[in-house]
Design brief:
This protein has about 525 residues and is an alpha+beta fold. The protein has two domains: about 5-135, no CATH class; about 155-529, Porin. About 20% of the residues lie in helices and about 50% in strands. It contains ten helices and 20 strands. The protein has helices at about 5-20, 25-30, 35-45, 55, 70-80, 95-115, 120-135, 145-150, 180-185, 465-470; strands at about 155-165, 190-205, 210-220, 230-240, 245-260, 270-285, 290-300, 310-325, 330-340, 345-350, 350-355, 355-370, 375-385, 395-405, 410-420, 430-445, 450-465, 475-495, 495-510, 515-529. The chain has an 18-stranded antiparallel beta barrel. The chain has a two-stranded antiparallel sheet with strand order 10-11. Helix 1 packs antiparallel against helix 3 (about 35-45), helix 5 (about 70-80) runs antiparallel to helix 6 (about 95-115) and helix 6 runs antiparallel to helix 7. The longest helix has 22 residues, at about 95-115. The chain is globular.
Length: about 525
């Protein structure tokens, strides 16, 4: 199936000539067809509409009997826009424009990306450009007066972003390895760019609120072209509320990106897909007591055949009870159950190891404002993980996390972190990674347009429960990671953000060739509409 992309694009761009004048006109005026609309309809092969048509009076219930359901939906939506059919929401045409832009961009990008995986880069650029152009006319619908801006109205914000990165050790190769023997070059460095576009949405409906974002990105390396990749980042949530005492969140997120080389110790690209679904709720049983419950599911899939044993499904459920003060401070307890299932068994010599596990945890929670300038969030848990196979690698221990934020002025903030914690997400899910260390995150808002922030970390990462370790084939892997990051953000206007970032990271390890040092610098520019 193919879409008439030139006709759709021409129709889409031309419809804005009609939208501008019709948006402020009377409903009767919206049914009149201008010469521009008639010419645009002809270009898109849309038959003329008569004002007496029943479908014109009830545009959202008209059936379509085209040969293709997908093409019919897009064709039907364009037809409604071109003939100025009134939508059931105000202002007329705004939602139709955004929805049609998403449908057009998503349909064309999905169809063409599926067909052009082996095509050249110009073809890919044409597809991204076409999808972007379908969204641009909707910018016209965002023109609002001052009164509308003050109201709690729906907002849909498209954006584009370009990032240029220089990395002096792309594959995180040890200093003890000659890179020429691994990557065929004595230089570990490369420069790459990431082109991103997408949109975010914030839609309030009475007590409910729907928020989400969708980003498509294209990464291109200057030297290591084998790492070129296309990815996406999808996030959406329904912030639900029932009355004043019951509220929560239902949502999902999905990312598709290149996996980090820091944990792999290999130089083969691995596209990692991570999908998370979650739901949670909190009920103020009384003004002082809050009851909470949450459930989540994580799915991780790898593209590299050598790492398929890290594919995992993790399901969790959590319940909590907290005492809440009149000032909003809270202290309470919680319990969590988690199960992990690995579709692919891990090969270890001639044996296949099942890394499935069950994990239980319970502990205390604290969220307390100590003064007008200081805030503390802390938790402490006792965690127990049991493996279905090789029970000698079971884990039992105490973990904790504390985060103290100090804001002496409105422009300066300092956050200190101390932790002994199980990493909430690891590329290697078959092992428990116990992280012990400290961090410091200062932020300085120098002016209304300029902000400087940093991130200093000193961590020890201990890899527990590895099957080879449980069988006595190797010792426990321990890494020490030191990193420093500085970020300068500049906002010359409300719609433009420019960022420059520097990162230096060093890792030492008791595993052969597990050490590395890397310095990364990148600059990005983001434009929202």
């Amino acid at each position: 199936m193919t879409y008439p992309a030139p006709r759709i694009l021409a129709a889409w761009l031309a419809v804005m000539a009609v939208q501008g004048s019709a948006a402020t006109g009377a409903p009767q005026a919206q049914l009149r067809q201008t010469p521009t609309a008639l010419m645009t309809a002809a270009a898109a092969r849309i038959p003329p509409r008569r004002a007496s048509d029943t479908a014109a009076r009830f545009p959202w219930t008209r059936s379509y009997k085209g040969g293709s359901a997908e093409r019919g939906a897009l064709h039907r939506l364009l037809e409604r826009l071109l003939h100025r059919a009134p939508a059931p929401v105000q202002p007329p045409g705004d939602w139709a424009l955004w929805v049609a832009g998403l449908i057009g961009a998503g349909a064309i990008a999905r169809r063409r990306l599926a067909l052009m995986r082996d095509r050249n880069r110009p073809a890919r650029k044409i597809t991204y450009g076409l999808a972007s152009l379908l969204l641009l006319p909707a910018l016209h619908a965002r023109a609002q007066d001052a009164d509308a801006q003050a109201r709690d109205v729906a907002k849909v914000t498209p954006f584009v972003e370009e990032t240029l990165t220089a990395d002096d050790n792309v594959f995180r190769i040890s200093k003890d390895i000659d890179p020429a023997t691994v990557i065929g070059s004595r230089s570990r460095a490369d420069t790459y760019r990431i082109t991103s576009f997408g949109l975010s949405a914030d839609v309030p409906v009475s007590l409910q609120r729907f928020v989400g974002s969708l980003t498509f990105n294209s990464t291109r390396y200057q030297r290591f072209a084998a790492l070129d990749s296309d990815g996406h980042d999808l996030r959406g949530s329904w912030l639900w509320q029932a009355g004043k005492d019951l509220r929560g969140e239902l949502g999902l997120s999905e990312t598709y990106s290149l996996a980090s080389f820091a944990q792999l110790l290999i130089t083969t690209a691995d596209q990692l897909r991570v999908r998370r679904e979650f739901v949670n709720g909190a009920w103020m049983v009384t003004p002082q007591w809050r009851l909470g419950a949450a459930g989540d599911r994580l799915e991780q899939r790898n593209s590299n055949a050598a790492t398929l044993f890290n594919d995992v499904n993790v399901d969790g459920f959590e319940a909590s009870l907290s005492r809440v003060s009149a000032a909003g401070n809270s202290i309470g307890c919680s319990a969590r159950i988690e199960t992990g299932h690995f579709p692919t068994l891990q090969p270890l010599g001639t044996a296949l190891i099942d890394n499935a596990y069950r994990q239980y945890g319970a502990g205390l929670r604290l969220d307390w404002t100590l003064s007008g300038t200081s805030h503390l969030v802390a938790r402490a848990d006792q965690v127990s993980r049991h493996y279905d196979q090789l029970p000698q690698r079971d884990f039992n221990g105490a973990i904790g996390h504390a985060e103290f934020t100090w804001t002496p002025t409105g422009k300066l903030a300092l956050t200190a972190i101390a932790q002994r914690d199980i990493s909430p997400y690891e590329y290697i899910r078959s092992s428990i990674v116990l992280i012990t260390g400290i961090g410091l995150r200062p932020t300085w808002r120098m002016t209304a347009k300029l902000e400087l922030s940093g991130d200093l970390e000193a961590l020890t990462r201990s890899y527990r429960a590895d099957p080879a370790q449980a069988l006595g084939l190797m010792g426990q892997r321990d890494d020490k990671v030191r990193s420093a990051t500085a970020l300068l953000a500049y906002h010359p206007t409300r719609t433009v953000t420019v960022q420059a970032t520097l990162l230096h990271e060093e890792r030492s390890s008791n595993v052969a060739f597990g050490d590395y040092a890397a310095s990364v610098a990148w600059i990005s520019a983001r434009l929202i509409f």
